[in-house]
Amino acid sequence: MVFSGKFIKNTLTALIAVFPLLSFANPDQDTLNIKAGSTAYTKEHAVQDEHAPQDKNDKINAYIDHHLQDSHDFVFFSDESTGEHYGFPLPVIVFDDGLHVFSSARFHHGEEVAEVDGNYYAMHHGKIYKTDANGTMKFDEHGHAENEKPLDFSITKNVITMLFVCVLMFLMFVGLAKSYKKGPLPTGFGRVLEPLIIFIRDEVAVPNIGEKKYRKYMGFLLTVFFFIWILNLLGMTPLGVNVTGNISVTVCLALFTYFITQFSANKDYWKHIFWMPDVPVPMKIILMPIEILGTLTKPFALLIRLFANITAGHVVIMSLIAMMFVGKNLVADMPISLGLTLFISVIELLVAFLQAFIFTMLSSLFIGMAVQDHHHEEDHDAHTEEEPIII
To answer: What is the largest CA-CA distance in the chain?
Structure first.
């Protein structure tokens, strides 16, 4: 799998150029102002609500919310005048008195009720609820749906994107491994991967974990770095994916780091947590719960940092694009909006790399703190037996 440098440069340039023009090419979600009680959510009701007059700010907020959320279908762009959506449906897998698998096309983008094996399901704000043939939905006083929800194991847009990135990474690294069989230097796209791999090894893994133990964790560190970086870059495209801005994904990534850290930890690590050496006994009792809490705050900081930074970047870009729609003078606001959007998009390219690097760096740091050896007694004896230096 060979990519020339010219192809990569032209591809990145094209993505940056078309992003400001196509970022709003996602369908907005239907939002219903529903009072407490039951409502039959039929296709006619959905179409009527879709074409009802809406405030411009509310419509823009709907676009931004849709971009940040996951969905059960992959839509490339929509024709707002006709209500047509262009994309492809994804498999819906729910467990409700048995396993049911069907296409999300049955929902018609949330406008119809899907009947599957005698059960009826409706989609409301991207979530699947059980209902009846009329699509009756029950809402509380705050407008939240009260219908029962089946267990949803669907292959959503974020799942498809992650599977694509996994396949892409597999092809890249298999191609790099094969290129080393031909000679000591990689060829093709491997020339781009090798400096990054060496960078993660020499600047991240070795300084934080140590030369003797870093190889055991290089596979995880490389995987998490390239996985987050590629997902961040895909989030900058007009595809409308926001995988690393989904807190469920960041929680899963942080849990991997947490479990690897805890299961790799040596006895010195646990001793410093439960009975810290060279500290008075009363302080040991006080510090013990703080250290235990610290093992949980570390992965929490990982997931929140990645989620918040990526989400904030997407919101800022979408808000800057919205300036040309909410401004009164479209001709005057468009150059400013497009200029700021292009500027922030270039910065987001740096942030995409930076967040992947920070997540990998902190993961290696936490692992290194858990696997490093402590020699308090030996160090203490060395200091006591050391001869004084005469100047």
So the answer is: 94
Residue numbers of the domain that contains 210: 159-376
Q: What residue spans of the chain are helical by DSSP H?
A: 5-22, 43-50, 56-68, 157-182, 190-200, 206-209, 215-234, 247-264, 267-274, 281-326, 330-371, 376-385
The verdict on 115 and 196 lying in the same domain is no
Query: Quick check: is 388 in a domain?
Result: no
Domain count of the fold of the chain: 2
Q: What is the pLDDT of residues 294-308, one digit of tens each?
A: 888 988 999 998 988
Q: Which residue has the tokens 């791999």?
A: 197
Q: Assess if residue 290 is contained within a domain.
A: yes
- Residues 121, 195, single domain; the answer is no
Residue 130, token pair as written in the block: 């059980």
pLDDT in tens, 117-162: 888 888 887 788 888 888 888 888 877 888 888 888 888 888 999 9
Read off the pLDDT of residues 366-389 as tens digits, 9 standing for 90 and up. Answer: 999 988 876 554 444 444 444 444
**Residue-wise pLDDT tens digits, 305-353:** 898 888 888 777 777 777 766 665 555 566 777 777 777 778 888 888 9
Q: Work out the angle between the directed axes of helices 190-200 and 215-234 (0-180°, nearest 10).
A: 120
- The model's pTM: 0.76
| CB 146, CB 139: distance < 8 Å | yes
Query: Is 18 contained in some domain?
Result: no
User: At how many degrees (to 10) do helices 5-22 and 330-371 cross?
Assistant: 120
C-alpha separations of 170 from 226, 287, 356 in Å: 11, 44, 18
Q: Is the pLDDT of residue 3 over 70?
A: no
Which residue in this structure is represented by tokens 């983008």? 109
